[in-house]
Amino acid sequence: MYNENNAPRARLLSLLVAAACAGVSVTAAADPTITLTAVYAMNGGADTDAVAEQGFTGSDFYFNKSDAGSNVFFHTYGSTGSTTYFGARASGGGTDFYASTSALYSGTYTNTSGSALMLDFSFYVDGGETALSGVGDGSANTRLQIRRNGSIVSQGDTLIMQAAGITTCSESDIGALGNWASCSAADAGGAYGAGGSYMVGLGLVAAGETITIDYDIIATVSGQGIVHTCGGGYGGYGGYEGYGGYGQGEPQPTYQCSDFSGIARSGDPFGQGTLNFVDDFSLNATAVDLPEPGSLALLAAAGGGWWLSRRRRSGGAAG
Fold first, then answer.
1. Are residues 139 and 166 in the same domain?
2. Chain segment 62-83, per-residue pLDDT in tens
3. Average pLDDT, stretch 83-92?
4. Statement to judge: residues 300 and 221 lie in one domain
5. What is the domain extent for residue 212?
6. Do both 68 and 198 map to the same domain?
7. Both 74 and 194 in a single domain?
């Protein structure tokens, strides 16, 4: 019922980041930032910016709201200090819900070493999950994505969908982050992200070049739960006269409910979220020996001459 769209941007949080660069110089052109977003809708209502609704201006965003049998919940955060960490969680349940949230880390970096470098971005990601449960139709999606100058370098993208009683689990993965979560089966109702250390290659950075690194954690859930009969069955131990309980073997009441729900979450990258890991992340740079422009021109001329001589000899033989 709802379409995933770009949420309004929340307050930018400046983060001071240390770069460990294996003996070569890579400097930050500007302090990195974290941007938090959260959008929700319930029971046919319009998409609502939860950050603006709550008037949020901090770094640790909690939001919980219920309406006529539906509910949404967010916990999205970005923080700095002795450790740097961020993450995003969206949950929802009931008859009609949509919740999407993002924690976007952005920074620009300049190679000031005077020679071309190969850059590796190393960091830690906490465990997470993508899951649906109950009776209804909907989806849950968790996406971790790293971009260089807007182009995707690595991505872990897990999607759980449920429709007409059929559940599917699929992945759209690129590079190292593709190992974050895997579907245990094509019809799995949940997938769980593996916490641990990751390294993503950012490719070649020329001398003097500035690149932008974006790392986005996006969590989205939506669904329409089917109202059905819940409860019933027979009671166990613990029902005593005078307390309104149902004793062993006594029938329990039934009621109408919607038990459909979804969750998508990941977070706590870089410093693992604890004071024991104070290295937020590292940019590991390796110098690359490239031919001088003059040498490249000579190689090109030599290659062209070889090709022409081969062509002449081939032409002569054909004549």
1. yes
2. 999 999 889 999 999 987 655 6
3. 87
4. no
5. 13-229+256-288
6. yes
7. yes
Give the tens place of pLDDT for each residue, 162-198: 999 999 999 999 999 999 999 999 999 999 998 888 8
Here the tokens at position 214 are 């974006």
Count of structural domains within the chain: 2
125-126-127-131 Cα dihedral, nearest 10 degrees: -80
The radius of gyration computed from the CA coordinates of the chain, to the nearest angstrom, equals: 27
Per residue in 132-151, pLDDT tens?
999 999 999 999 999 999 99
Tell whether 3 is covered by a domain.
no
Q: Are residues 82 and 172 located together in one domain of the fold?
A: yes
